[in-house]
Design a protein that fits this description.
Helix content: 25-40%
CATH topology of one domain: Rossmann fold
Order of helices and strands: EEEHHEHEHEHEHEHEHEHEHHEHHE
Oligomer: single chain
CATH architecture of one domain: 3-Layer(aba) Sandwich
Distance between the termini: 49 Å
Structural class: alpha/beta
Number of helices: 13
Strand order of the largest sheet: 4-5-13-10-11-12
Strand content: 15-25%
Shape: globular
């Protein structure tokens, strides 16, 4: 609504927000949306939020869609931030919370980004969208494209969880299975998109999925009465949620809603696919591709992320870090979380609890701190991960 321009995340060069854009033309890096926050603040106030609907569109003034007529929505966002008292008690934690993204319309956090990206595609008059996906992003694109009357072309690794494949097909998407990883699927989209007339909505390869994901940060602040937690643990494949939250914190400070304090951000990856963890530990500014990536947590099987340099910068600036956990730890923690708190979380969500155990044992996270774990999806979409 108050979008002014796009800017390259590497060099800051301005790009036109009135036409569809992918990565920056200068550095081939992600683009960020920038807003007239002074204008936004005239109507986007803490008091105004008390009267607004419980979806991510409550933050309408700092989202990019110009007209309400272009909004494609199924009520995504404003998911619960749940206390986890029994899990916390096991570790002497008084302030352990779980942000449960499985309660989005598509049962994962991907609904946020795709709702905004598809809304912008509608605004631009686009009709064919394409994405590589390890599962939940594909389901979200299929959902919102169908809602908008657009074509969705989804490229998935052949071993993507069956629930995700069926979901996309039953929502009318064109699904192509690739023998390889999500990077191979992305290469296929890139090879065919011009000839096929597709617009690529890959993670951080267009500017608006991150705008939907940043609402995680706004919600976190609002649900905690404008006091951010001490620690955030976030499962990271492409990293849009991590990147989006950090962007939201900056915007909220400029709006005068929060101060300079930030949570210590911890990225969680699978031991079989940990490019960000390796780069963080090595002191690198970007992450080399993790060759031969393997993990049953399909959302974490991202061997190379275009936003790697942004994520690594956030982890360091926040005083956080990066943790890798095994698949066996994730699966065991899924049951532990489920039996303690009644949440059947995705393996990626369980990975954050597994990582928390490591951080507590090292003394990196203190028991008196407020801690938020992000569950990014529903466990029912990963039935192949669990014994019959």
């Amino acid at each position: 609504m108050h979008l002014t321009h796009l800017a390259c995340t590497a060099c800051g060069r301005s790009h036109d927000a009135s036409v569809p854009q992918n990565v920056s033309t200068c550095c081939s890096k992600p683009l960020y949306a920038h807003y007239d926050l002074a204008a936004a603040a005239r109507t986007l106030t803490k008091a105004a939020l008390q009267t607004r609907g419980k979806s991510l569109w409550r933050y309408r003034e700092v989202l990019p869609v110009k007209s309400d007529a272009h909004i494609v929505t199924l009520g995504e966002g404003f998911t619960p931030l749940l206390p986890a008292p029994r899990l916390g008690a096991k570790h002497g934690l008084a302030r352990l919370l779980i942000k449960d993204e499985s309660q989005n319309p598509t049962q994962s956090f991907k609904a946020r980004g795709m709702a905004v990206a598809v809304s912008m595609a509608k605004q631009f008059g686009l009709t064919k969208l394409a994405v590589p996906s390890a599962g939940n992003a594909g389901g979200a694109l299929a959902t919102y494209a169908a809602r908008a009357g657009m074509e969705a072309h989804i490229f998935m690794p052949a071993d993507t969880p069956k629930a995700n494949i069926i979901e996309c097909r039953e929502l009318g998407a064109h699904v192509t299975l690739i023998n390889g990883l999500i990077t191979d699927c992305g290469a296929e989209v890139a090879r065919r998109k011009v000839a096929e007339g597709w617009f690529d909505v890959s993670t951080l390869k267009e500017p608006y999925r991150v705008e939907g994901k940043k609402t995680l940060g706004y919600e976190l602040a609002e649900q905690l009465d404008w006091t951010l937690p001490d620690v955030v643990l976030y499962p990271t494949g492409g990293g849009t949620g991590l990147v989006g939250m950090w962007k939201a914190f900056d915007e909220m400070e400029r709006l005068g809603w929060i101060g300079r304090k930030r949570p210590r951000m911890f990225t969680v990856q699978a031991s079989g696919c940990q490019p960000i963890v390796r780069a963080f530990n090595a002191g690198e500014k970007s992450a080399a591709e993790h060759l031969g990536a393997t993990t049953r947590a399909s959302g974490l099987r991202v061997p190379k992320a275009i936003g790697d340099f942004i994520m690594l910068d956030i982890l360091r600036k926040s005083g956080g870090g990066a943790v890798a956990v095994t698949d066996d730890e994730m699966i065991a923690c899924t049951r532990e979380v489920g039996s303690a708190e009644g949440l059947f979380v995705a393996p990626e969500g369980a990975a954050t609890y597994a990582a928390l155990k490591h951080l507590l044992s090292r003394g990196t996270v203190r028991r008196e701190e407020s801690i938020v774990l992000f569950n990014t999806g529903a466990g029912v979409k990963y039935l192949e991960c669990f014994g019959g």
